[in-house]
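Regression test case RT-17, inverse folding.

Input:
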């Protein structure tokens, strides 16, 4: 039973990591191109299409949570508020 649960846990971690990378690429970069190599494929970000504000907010969230140990809900609320302010200021569309 323990072996089966370990395998399921590893699969779930893999799915969550895959989704995190997919969302990061499609949030920080405006454009991503599919790359295929045999049975493997992924979306490669176009580096010139970086959304600077999304990158800054993401970096701020990482620093807040890992360096300053601020909780996830507070970090999410602060970065959401910053995104709304940037939107209302016309910095992002």
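Golden output:
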């Amino acid at each position: 039973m323990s072996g089966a649960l370990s395998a399921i846990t590893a699969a779930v971690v893999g799915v969550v990591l895959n989704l995190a990378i997919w969302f990061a690429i499609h949030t920080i970069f405006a454009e991503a191109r599919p790359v295929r190599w045999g049975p493997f494929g992924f979306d490669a970000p176009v580096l010139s299409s970086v959304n600077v504000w999304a990158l800054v907010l993401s970096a701020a969230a990482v620093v807040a949570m890992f360096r300053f140990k601020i909780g996830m809900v507070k970090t999410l609320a602060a970065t959401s508020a910053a995104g709304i302010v940037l939107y209302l200021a016309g910095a992002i569309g």
